[in-house]
């Protein structure tokens, strides 16, 4: 059987995922993996151990590169990652970190609250993880916490290119933001802001304290609003509505760029990103409700041959999946998926 | 005389400075003769930054609880954003929306530390992300519970979507208004060009004219006069009324838009404003009181004759000088 393992190709991206204590031992490696107990046999963990155990953090990147390189039959890779193969393009999703209202436990929704100190640090940390992945375009929401996350992350990017926000609200702003040097323009990463990537609009809960709201409306009602697919808070959006506008925007504006060869970073919010992931991974509405995205941890997809495939995963406590980050794991995953079909 | 309302934030801890050490001619911060000026030397030795609103040693000043201003005084804080990614590359930026570099981020946070105890009720920034980020990063250090929230009024949807439904929460919000009128001077056809190359192409003199004259604009760009016109108009129209009505205000903006506002507040001549260099990331403080807005901490001003007070004694000395001049 010809194994076309999606995750086997380039090793360039595996190094950007942080470990979770208890799952993967080394700092530079690892993904946000949470397995359903019993959904995977112990063999999985044994495999993982073989791959990861005993590595010290400093050599881990090289170790993984070696594993992949030997599997691929290509030369051993050095520490700095190779550039993307030209047939593949990267899609990076980053969910912004803590905002000042998260700190105060208030429902935020589309209220334009900035990052807290911790959120700033999370953004910078996220930047470190993606510092070697090429980026040609950036999409963010219209909210400052996502824009700041993108800009702070890019301060850590090693490429010379500079993110510049595209302004086209009116004639004046178009005229005033023109760049008159071709050289400079070629080193610009356009940053497109759009409300369609905003967080889910929380209607009349925006600004309310989470505890108080539970007291006022009852825990069950609030849980429904927060965690159902199609029950919106009063005058707000349900997840389905949020998904509709976010995915429509993605399909219309972002996907074409991606498939045309641009490496893309999307810095947005929990619900808009879940919507996009639902679209990319073809999740059911039940699966997307269970999907929890870690803040500040970049998620990677690779677009290749017209398909966009997951390369590193969000936290997914209740979804049965294997997220591969080594060839052996990838093989195992492939096996599981063929078994399921 | 000067109220002590804000002066506690300036205490240098160095005690009384005898009037005789003042050199009224200049605080030549950047000039090569700086070391000859005794007061500058004194400050420098003690690591006091004349431009800072709060003393660099304020954390070690033991019994100086930062007082809130008397209710008759309101604060106006101006912060110029720090280094951007194009500053790093030595490119003319103007109104191109380039974000802060790592250093610019640090400068913003540092600025925030200095103003962490000054009450703020409203924030105005330009429509460029580097100024907005400067404001937001500075506010992460603010000690008050209030939270800055960007006001969205572009269309019906954004108004509806940004509504807050709790009175309690609304009362703890610092509205952040973004305005293109506070943008950096639009640099026309120089935007994106390398500074060296431009000098080679047009000649150093022409470039110097564009950069440092009051009314010669770069091709298809704004002169400082044009920038001042829209910035000051906005200030008078939107910001001044709030200030005089009792709101403490922070403006995070750019070199030229802030110079324009300072020119308006300090009634500088066009020659003086050309010479005015604003430090990046160092907050400048004005106090509005009795319908007047007066300078309390200064920008770097190598060629302007002035004494910028930040202790009571300095303040008294300044008062003396100003009385002498009138």
UniProtKB/TrEMBL annotation, chain A:
Top enzyme class of this protein?
Answer: isomerase
> Which residues take part in binding substrate?
95-102, 108-109, 145, 199-202, 210, 226-227, 270-271
| InterPro entries named among the record's database cross-references | His_Pase_superF_clade-1 (IPR013078), His_PPase_superfam (IPR029033), PG/BPGM_mutase_AS (IPR001345), Phosphogly_mut1 (IPR005952)
Active site annotation, chain numbering? 96 (tele-phosphohistidine intermediate), 199 (proton donor/acceptor)
EC number assigned by the record = 5.4.2.11
Protein name as annotated: phosphoglycerate mutase (2,3-diphosphoglycerate-dependent)
Pfam family of the protein (one): His_Phos_1
Q: Does the keyword Isomerase apply?
A: yes
Please cite one Gene Ontology biological process associated with this protein: glycolytic process
Source organism per entry reads: Ceratopteris richardii (Triangle waterfern)
Automatic annotation (TrEMBL), chain B:
UniProt GO MF annotations: phosphoglycerate mutase activity
User: One Pfam family from the UniProt entry?
Assistant: His_Phos_1
Superkingdom is Eukaryota
Q: Does the keyword Magnesium apply?
A: no
* GO biological process terms, semicolon-separated: glycolytic process
Keywords from the named record:
Glycolysis, Isomerase
Question: What InterPro entries does UniProt report for this protein, alphabetically?
Answer: His_Pase_superF_clade-1 (IPR013078), His_PPase_superfam (IPR029033), PG/BPGM_mutase_AS (IPR001345), Phosphogly_mut1 (IPR005952)
Enzyme Commission code: 5.4.2.11
**Per its UniProt record, what SMART domains does this chain match?**
PGAM
EC primary class: isomerase
The reply to whether Isomerase figures as a keyword in the UniProt entry is yes
Range of residues in the leader sequence: none
Q: Which PROSITE patterns match?
A: PG_MUTASE
Binding site residues for substrate: 80-87, 93-94, 130, 184-187, 195, 211-212, 255-256
SUPFAM superfamilies to which the protein is assigned, alphabetical: Phosphoglycerate mutase-like
Tell me the active site: 81, 184
Q: Which residues does the UniProt site feature Transition state stabilizer point to?
A: 254
Entry's PANTHER family? Answer: PHOSPHOGLYCERATE MUTASE (PTHR11931)
**Member of which family?**
Belongs to the phosphoglycerate mutase family. BPG-dependent PGAM subfamily.
Its recorded name reads phosphoglycerate mutase (2,3-diphosphoglycerate-dependent)
Query: What species was this sequence derived from?
Result: Ceratopteris richardii
State the taxonomy lineage: Eukaryota, Viridiplantae, Streptophyta, Embryophyta, Tracheophyta
């Amino acid at each position: 059987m010809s194994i076309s393992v999606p995750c086997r190709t380039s090793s360039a991206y595996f190094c950007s995922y942080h470990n979770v204590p208890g799952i993967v031992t080394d700092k530079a490696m690892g993904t946000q993996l949470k397995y359903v107990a019993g959904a995977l046999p112990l063999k999985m963990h044994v495999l993982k151990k073989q791959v990861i155990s005993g590595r010290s953090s400093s050599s881990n990147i090289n170790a993984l590169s070696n594993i992949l390189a030997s599997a691929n039959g290509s030369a051993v890779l050095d520490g700095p990652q190779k550039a993307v193969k030209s047939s593949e393009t990267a899609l990076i999703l980053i969910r912004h970190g803590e905002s000042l209202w998260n700190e105060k436990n208030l429902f935020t929704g589309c209220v334009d609250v900035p990052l807290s100190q911790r959120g700033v640090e999370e953004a910078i940390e996220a930047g470190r993880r993606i510092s070697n992945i090429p980026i040609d375009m950036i999409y963010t929401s219209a909210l400052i916490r996502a824009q700041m996350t993108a800009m702070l992350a890019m301060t850590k990017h090693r490429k010379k290119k500079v993110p510049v926000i595209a302004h086209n609200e009116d004639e004046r702003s178009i005229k005033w933001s023109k760049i008159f040097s071709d050289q400079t323009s070629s080193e610009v990463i356009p940053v497109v802001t759009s409300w369609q990537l905003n967080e889910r609009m929380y209607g009349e809960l925006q600004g309310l304290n989470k505890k108080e709201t539970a007291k006022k409306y009852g825990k069950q009602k609030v849980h429904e609003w927060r965690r159902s697919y199609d029950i919106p808070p009063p005058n707000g959006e349900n997840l389905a509505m949020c998904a509709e506008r976010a995915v429509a925007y993605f399909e219309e504006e972002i996907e074409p760029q991606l498939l045309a060869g641009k490496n893309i970073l999307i810095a947005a919010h929990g619900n808009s990103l879940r919507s996009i992931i639902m679209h990319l991974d073809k999740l059911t509405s039940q699966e997307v409700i269970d999907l929890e995205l870690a803040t500040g941890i970049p998620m990677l997809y690779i677009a290749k041959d017209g398909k966009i495939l997951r390369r590193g995963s969000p936290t997914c406590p209740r979804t049965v999946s294997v997220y591969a980050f080594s060839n052996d794991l990838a093989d195992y995953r492939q096996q599981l998926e063929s078994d399921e079909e | 005389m000067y109220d002590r309302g804000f002066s506690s934030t300036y205490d240098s801890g160095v005690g009384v400075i005898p009037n005789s050490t003042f050199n009224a001619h200049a605080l030549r911060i950047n000039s090569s003769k700086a070391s000859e000026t005794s007061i500058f030397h004194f400050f420098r030795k003690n690591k006091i930054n004349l431009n800072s609103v709060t003393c660099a040693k304020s954390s070690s000043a033991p019994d100086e609880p930062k007082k809130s201003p008397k209710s008759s005084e309101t604060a106006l804080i101006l912060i110029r954003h720090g280094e951007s990614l194009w500053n790093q590359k030595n490119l003319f930026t103007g109104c191109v929306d380039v974000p802060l570099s790592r250093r610019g981020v640090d400068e913003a946070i540092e600025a925030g530390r200095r103003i962490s105890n000054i009450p703020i009720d409203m924030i105005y920034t330009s429509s460029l992300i580097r100024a907005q980020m400067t404001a937001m990063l500075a506010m992460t250090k603010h000690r008050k519970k209030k939270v800055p929230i960007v006001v969205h009024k572009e269309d019906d949807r954004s108004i509806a979507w940004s509504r807050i439904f709790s009175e309690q929460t609304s009362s703890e919000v610092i509205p952040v208004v973004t305005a293109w009128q506070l943008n950096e001077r639009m640099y026309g056809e120089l935007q994106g060009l390398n500074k060296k190359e431009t000098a080679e192409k047009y000649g150093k003199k022409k470039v110097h004219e564009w950069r440092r004259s009051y009314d010669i604009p770069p091709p298809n760009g704004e002169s400082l006069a044009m920038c001042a016109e829209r910035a000051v108009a906005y200030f008078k129209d939107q910001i001044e009324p709030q200030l005089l009505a009792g709101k403490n205000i922070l403006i995070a903006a750019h070199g030229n838009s802030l110079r324009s506002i300072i020119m308006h507040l300090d009634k500088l001549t066009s020659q003086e404003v050309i010479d005015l260099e604003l430090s990046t990331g160092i907050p400048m403080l004005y106090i509005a009181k009795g319908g007047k807005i007066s300078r309390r901490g200064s920008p770097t001003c190598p060629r302007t004759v002035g004494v910028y007070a930040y202790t009571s004694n300095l303040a008294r000395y300044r008062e003396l000088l100003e009385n002498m001049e009138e």
